Every structure is written in C-alpha cells, then in structure tokens.
Amino acid sequence: MAASRIRKLTAGGIALGGTVALASWVFGDDSHTKKQFGLHVHAADHLKARPNKPLPTRSEQLKALEDETYDVLIIGGGATGAGCALDSVSRGLKTALVELDDFSSGTSSRSTKLLHGGVRYLQKAIFNLDIEQYRMVKEALHERANLLEIAPHLSYPLPIMLPVYTWWQIPYYWSGIKMYDLVAGSKCIKSSYVLSKEKAIELFPMLRKDKLCGAIVYYDGQHNDARMNISIALTAARLGATVANHVRVVSLTKNKDSEGKEKISGARVRDEVTGKEWEVRAKCVINATGPFTDSIREMDQQSVNKICAPSAGVHIVLPDYYSPANMGLLDPSTSDGRVIFFLPWQGLTIAGTTDTPCEVTHHPSPTEADIEFILGEIRSYLSPDIEVRRGDVLSAWSGIRPLVSDPNKPDSQSLVRNHIVHVSDSGLVTIAGGKWTTYRSMAMETLDAAVEKCNLPAVRGSATDGLLLEGAHGWTPTMFIRLVQDFGLESEVAKHLSETYGDRAFSVAKLAALTGKRWPIVGKRLHEEFPYIDAEVRYAVREYACTAVDVIARRLRLAFLNVQAAEEALPSIISIMAEELKWSEDEQKRQHAEAVKFVREEMGQQVNRQSRDKIPINLSREEISNYIKRFQALDQDKKGYISINDIRRGLKIGDLIPNHEISGEEIHAALNKVDLRLNGQTDLSEFIQRQGESISGTMMHDILREVDVNSNGLVELDEFLQLMACIKSGRVTNSRFDQLAQEAQKDAEEEEAKRKAIPVDRSGGGV
To answer: How far apart are CA 687 and CA 762, in angstroms?
Structure first.
C-alpha cells in the first residue's frame, strides 16, 4: 500500500514538472508580450532619477484640481488606484487622483502583508490544467520580484515553513513548492528546501512536536502594505500627478460628443475637510474603488448589474513570542479548508485570514467568531506548552476583498479568479478584483484600455516596471547608522525610520525634537513600547495626513499593532497635529473621539472587551474569598466600589515617575513651570508632587478602563471578579489593575501582621 502511494507521488511529481515546463515554454517571458504591444519593460531614463521636487501641499493639490483639466482622473486611493496614477503619469499623461478617505484606508492597509504568487493557485492550475490560473501565478511572481526591487526598504524576502505531519505528504508538498520555484524562474527569491523534524523545531521552537515528520520552507515577500500604498501615491505626486485624499466623488459629469452620445467628462467632488464642492474636468475617469466599485458604476448608469461580491478577511496580532523573528508558518488546510498564515511582522505576530461573505461598508469590524477560528487553528499547530490565550490578541481587523464577476460576459454571476477591466458606453473605465501583489500590472492593463478607448495622448507606454518608489533611490540596509551618528537617534528608532521612509528618513529626522537627555539626543517616542517618534507626526501632515486616524492607522501602523498603545499615544499625536494644522480645542476633542471610535470598533478593542465580559465567573470559593480581600484592600472606605481616588491612593510615587535618567535641563524647565505654594519659588518636592499628579492622571484612567465594564467611572465587586475570571481563563493578560490590587492586598496583609506581632503588654493594654 505504502509502495503504491510512493509510486503515485513520484509519477505525480514528474507530471507536475512536465506540465510547468511545457507551460513556461508555451507562454514564455512576460517581457516579450509587453514588447509586442509597444510597452516599455523598464522605466524611462528620465524617470529613474530621484525626484527632488518638493511635494505640493494639500491646499495646492486641491487648487490644481479646481483649475486644471486632466487627461485622467482616478477615483480611489488604494493600491490599484495609486498604481493607476503612477502608471498614467509615467506615460506623460496629465493625471489626478481623489480618495474619499485616506490613501490605503480600505482593503489595501488590511492585507496579510504578503507579496506572493499564490501557492494554492498554482496547485489548481496544474491539477486542473487551468491556463488562466497559471498565467495569474506567473504574473504575480514577476510583480513580487519587481516590488522587492523598487521598494527594498519596505519589502523583503520571508521564509515560510509548511510543517508536515504525515510522511507521504513530504514529497507531495515538496514537488508543489518546487514547481512554485520553477514558475518564478529567474525571479525566484531563494530556493525552497526540506527540513528534518529536529531542524524544523530548532527554527520554529513553538511548533507542535508530536507526529511532526518534517517541514518544507519556501520564500515569498513581505511588506508594510499601507506605507507601500502611500509611497506609490507620493511617487506619482513627485512626478507631477495631482493626488488628494479626503475628497469624495459626489457625481460623474457628462457631455455629448460629436455623435450626440453622452461621454463622461469628469466628476463633481467635495472636500470632506472643508465641505467645499467643485467639478474636476477630465478626458477619462477610472473607477478603482475596490469594494465600492458598484457605487461608482451606478453613478454612470443607475440600472447597471452589480459585479462586486465582497468577502471579509479577518487578521489578528499577537505578541512577538508566538513566532520566530524571521520565519513564517503556513497552515495549508484548515478545519474548514481555508489557508492560514502565521507571520512575524513589525516586531509582533500576525495571523489570518478568514473568508466570509459580507456587506460593503466603509467601517468593517472583526467578529469574535473569526478571532476564535484563527486562535483555534493556531492552537492546532503550536506546542501544547504554549497557552494560546484570547487575552493575547493585541489588535484585530477586517478587510473586504472585492471579488468580482465579469460584466463583459453575459453570465454576471460567474466570479473571475483574477481581475477585470471594463469600459462602459459612456467611457467609464473600471478596474476591479485582483490582489495587492499585482497592483502594477493591473494598473498597466487599465491604462492600456483607457489610452485606447478614450484616445489619450500618451507620450510612451507604461514605464513603471523597475521604477523606484519614494525613498528607494538612496537607501541601503546600513543607512540607519548614519541616522544614529548624524542625529543622535536611538538605533531602534533609526532602523524604523530607515525601513519606513527609506532615503527620506533624513527629512523626518530633521523634524525631531530634542529629548533633553544625554541619549538619545533627538526623537521623543510617542509610546515607550514602539519606535515611533514625534517627528513622524509632523512629517505625516506633510504627506497629507488630515486626521488622527490617518496617523495611527496608516502612517504609524500603531492601531494595527496594539489598540491599547494607540489609544494611549493619541493625546501626544493630536497635540502635535494641532500645532501643524491649527486645530481648535473642539477639533482636537472631535479628532480624539473619532480615533477612539476607530480603534474600538474597527481595530478589535470593542470585541476584545465583549469577549471578556461573556466569560462566566467560574472561580472557586477560596479564589473568590481571596479576590474579595484584594478588592477590599483598595476599597479602604468600604463603599462597595473602587474609584479613581482609591487608585490614586494605591499608586506609589515610585510607580509614577518614569524609570529613566532625568537631565538637569528637564528638571529646571519643569521647576520653572511649577509653584504650588505661589511664593515665587519651587522646591523639588513640589516638582515630584506635580510630576506624580500629571503622570498618574492618564495612568489611573487607563487602569480604571481595564475593568470598568459599565463605563460609570467606578469598579464594582462583580466587575472585579469578572476580571479575575478572565485572567484565570486567559481572556485578559498583563492587567495593571490586578497588579495594583495585589500590591494593595500585600500591603494590607503586612500591616495586619505587624499589628498582630506587637505584644499586649507593649500595646498599652497590659496591667
């Protein structure tokens, strides 16, 4: 039986190799096809130099939208829309782009962060002899290599492990992965390889060991998706395109041509920041709005058939100890047939994704069922020694995939595997479907159709293959050392700036404020756990960030990494933005409320709390008795609840002062601002007292929020017991409130022990 299975696998591997080799010979290299159509394989020479032209301000971009007439107006600032803008301007066309929210605010910032060809698509292509699937994989592998080349500071190769728990699957998976390498050809990142059980555990110690036979490692790319998207838009802007975020398309405008037919002539738009409306004139309008494709098509023709079939994909973020720093994991066959990736990203661990039909919305949110599904799959692959806890979920988000049916075919219900480009009778060019990795080739195909159908005066063909993106021109892996040496930045911060902004990191560093410390000299962190600094907020405004959400979600990625940290950093971020954008007090409050709503509803904070509140209080009698004592240690007045004042009393000055060296300049600057006795002088005790008050205010409210379920500003006993039950079950981890209560209980017990230790004859009660 086993021998028969081996013979089948061997024959299958040979057949797979033959099929792929034949397909490679038949279809040849993609560059040949491009040359046939007169398209440039590499960027035009004059586009290769680093653009030194400063970015126009947002107000200048809006004025241009009012005054100019464009060859192309693109609706949508995601990866595909930004890619279309860059492709259009690279052809010498006068180009404009408008985005309702922020660049990459939709699906493009909520991906799995992979640049990949699609291993499972290749499997289908070979077994089903599906040429379309094969072409899609080959195209994606070319685009993967291109992105690694044009944005090396934002993208990098990532090894991904496929653990195997049945011995006969090793040759099966190995042959499939080797076909993946073969199809990539010269664009293969690194060759895949097989690992023994021992070596697999050495490289991925968290892996479940029982029944493990070995593993296969292959390579794909990984990137910072939102920053990549913004870099594409900024590159287009540097080359002369007009790009504007927070601009809504209200309607499409039309004129009659020489034959009396209505043709699209532009769009009426509204600035969502000021409310001002005007018309943008354009010879061609491209609809690149992802899940919102149909809403724009309905502006063109009300009775149009819907082509978008939205599907939600949820991801979660876990602490870094869930995965090695440089090795991902692929679960090729989950309990319901889906694929789950488990990847290191930005110093933490990202896991996903799900695939659930959904409604189109601007504010998708993760569900508890999807989060539990992902956690369940993770548990099946990790060692039983590792407790996969619900409370370890730092962030969770949902992105909407715009699966589409082809309007060019009579059967509108048949979903296409790749993407579609459609031109309506009035000239609206729609690009829909596809995936992140192939944004550039999709944009190229879209502009090819636009140039042909709308008779646009293109100077050349597409010049985006090999065209370096914002920050890539002068970047090297060791560039961060210069940032440390020239500016006095922390190494971790310098690496982050280098790997986010590329050679533009020097412009960011110039905006960094002095810390007042011996080291680092500049760069005040926005949150102590992350390398984001004050200068990035100021630079984000120069890169068209208009709201606090723009910064915490797309410019810094903090909301995607840790919702609690994002909320804690908000006051500092909003304060800096208020300086840059001249916000009033009311506007600052509004921005804070909107940002808090975003992290709670769209980044998983709310569903995290709801999952905790549903946990039954399954504590033993002894545990409840102990926790009541802990509660009473804070509730010294026996009120039946714990208030802010109780927390203030429980906190010690040593807990409130930051544990770092304070420079003389910092002390004198603070002393000059503090005079509690109003006597024209300030001593150190007053300074420490004020420092304790200012730090503890935010800290105390954060601690209270951890457990205040009904949001009444108080913590009742039932809420406290609920928290203890959640900690016991793993739904809550690292609770500062519980740590505070433990300290209070310990202090109370020590005080009681001291009282009992005093002899009666020395207590004043003897004869």
So the answer is: 41
pLDDT of residue 34: 41
Give the model's pLDDT for residue 677: 40
Q: Do you know the residue count of the chain?
A: 767
Residue (of 173, 159, 157) closest to 214 by Cα position: 173
> CA dist 329 to 13, 323, 370, 382, Å?
24, 9, 19, 10
Residue 12 CB partners (closer than 8 Å, separation 6+): 172, 175
With H, G, I as helix, E, B as strand and everything else as coil, classify residue 572. Answer: helix
What band does 130 get if pLDDT is binned at 50, 70 and 90? confident
Residue type, 220: D
Could you give the 3-state DSSP secondary structure of residue 688? helix
- Start-end of H helices in 424-557: 439-454, 479-487, 491-501, 505-509, 534-542, 548-549
Categorize the per-residue pLDDT at 356 as very low, low, confident or very high, splitting at 50, 70 and 90: confident
Q: Strand 308-318 to strand 348-352: parallel, antiparallel, or no bridges (unpaired)?
A: antiparallel
Instruction: Classify residue 625 by burial, with Cβ atoms within 10 Å: 0-12, 13-18, 19+.
Output: exposed
Q: Evaluate whether 309 touches 403 at the Cβ level (below 8 Å).
A: yes
| CA distance linking residue 537 with residue 514, whole number of Å | 15
Per-residue tokens: 268: 């009426």
- Copy the structure tokens of residue 642: 């714990």
Phi-psi region of 764 (alpha: psi -120 to 50; beta: other; left: phi over 0): left
| pLDDT, mean over the chain | 83
Name which of 729, 724, 692 is nearest 706 in CA terms: 724
Q: pLDDT, tens digit, for every residue of 50-92?
A: 988 889 999 999 999 999 999 999 999 999 999 999 999 999 9
Q: Are 450 and 287 in contact (CB under 8 A)?
A: no
Rg (CA), the chain: 29
Distances (CA, A) of 574 to 274, 298, 541, 587: 19, 38, 11, 10
DSSP state of 512: P
Task: Give the rounded distance of the alpha carbon of 573 from its chain centre.
Answer: 18
CA–CA separation, 405 and 310 (whole Å): 11
Query: In what helix (H) or strand (E) does residue 241 lie, and over which residues does it extend?
Result: none
Which range, 13-22, 37-46, 595-604, has the best average confidence (pLDDT)?
Answer: 595-604
d(CA 663, CA 330): 49
* Tokens 């082509």 sit on residue: 307
Element (H, E) at 202: helix 197-203
Output the pLDDT for position 98.
98
C-alpha 537/C-alpha 576 separation (Å) is: 7
pLDDT digits (tens, 9 = 90+) for 478-536: 999 999 999 999 999 999 999 999 999 999 999 999 999 999 999 999 999 999 999 99
- How many whole angstroms separate alpha carbon 317 and alpha carbon 319? 7
Question: Rounded to the nearest 5°, which phi and psi values hold at 601?
Answer: -95, -40
Chain centroid offset of residue 312 CA: 15
Instruction: Please give, one letter per residue, the 3-state secondary structure of 377-410.
Output: HHHHHECCCCCCCHHHCCEEEEEEEEEEECCCCC
Q: How far is CA 315 from CA 113, 263, 333, 390, in A?
A: 10, 42, 17, 14
pLDDT per residue over 396-438, tens digit each? 999 998 888 777 665 544 556 688 999 999 999 999 999 999 9
Q: For helices 585-601 and 605-613, give the axis angle rounded to 10 degrees.
A: 60
Residue 571: count other Cβ atoms within 10 Å of its Cβ: 14
For the record, the structure tokens of 335 come out as: 């309990």
What span, in angstroms and rounded, lies between the C-alpha atoms of 467 and 232?
Answer: 10
Which region among 245-254, 511-520, 668-677, 696-705 has the lowest average model confidence (pLDDT)? 668-677
DSSP state of 554: I
